[in-house]
């Protein structure tokens, strides 16, 4: 696990560092470039203590200095490759930020002419590109009582037997209270690990519940909630 973290450490470090530099330098891309140059130089000099000092407060709260230095020391090839890629970046660096809200939804922002602009698609309300995105989308549709949207998450095997009224009855009928408890539990555990295997995925939650996902035509759907 530690080796896997180290392999991606360079990319993570760049993202965290860029955001920290953007805030610290008023969002100017020149400030980000200077911060990245300092980070790259620290890697080339094997000054991992110095590289750690360039990481954000939020990152340092999650990864100790000792662990950071150990991961860097144990993975010299990855460190060298990260420094090389930083040296070869072309032109000015695009400053971006990512804002997390709602049920783990994210919105990406970029700087244009000194002002922050939203770069992500604001109309992507019901994403099905990953199992977790599908679960979030399903919960959003449920909260907004968008029963026609809920049909999107039904696998083809069961889709012919469902329509808007049946979907509404399933969640607002005789078992409405039971379904509300289940939805609340799902929402509270939405960050639980999801195991993917081919076109199927599973996420355990609560004491003995499990969501089962299936991918059809590139879109993830929900096979079972409990």
Shape: elongated
Structural classification: alpha+beta
Name the CATH architecture of the largest domain: Roll
| SSE string, helices as H and strands as E | HHHHHHHEEEHHHHHEEEE
Please give a handful of descriptors for the protein shown.
single chain; 226 residues; alpha+beta; Nuclear Transport Factor 2, Chain: A; 3-stranded antiparallel sheet; 12 helices; elongated; disordered N terminus
What is the element layout, followed by pairings?
Blueprint: H1 2-7, H2 9-24, H3 29-44, H4 48-53, H5 57-62, H6 65-74, H7 76-87, E1 96-101, E2 105-112, E3 115-118, H8 131-143, H9 147-150, H10 156-159, H11 164-172, H12 176-188, E4 195-197, E5 200-205, E6 209-216, E7 219-224
Antiparallel strand pairs: 1-2, 2-3, 4-5, 5-6, 6-7
Helix pairs in contact: 2-3, 3-7, 11-12
Description:
The structure is a single chain. The protein has 226 residues and is of the alpha+beta class. The chain folds into 2 domains: 2-94, no CATH class; 131-224, Nuclear Transport Factor 2, Chain: A. 51% of the residues lie in helices and 18% in strands. The protein has 12 helices and 7 strands. It has helices at 2-7, 9-24, 29-44, 48-53, 57-62, 65-74, 76-87, 131-143, 147-150, 156-159, 164-172, 176-188, and strands at residues 96-101, 105-112, 115-118, 195-197, 200-205, 209-216, 219-224. A 4-stranded antiparallel sheet has the order 4-5-6-7, covered by helices on one side. Strands 1-2-3 form a 3-stranded antiparallel sheet. Strand 6 (209-216) and strand 7 form a beta hairpin. Helix 2 packs across helix 3, helix 3 packs antiparallel against helix 7 (76-87) and helix 11 (164-172) crosses helix 12. The longest helix has 16 residues, at 9-24. It is elongated and about 65 Å long.
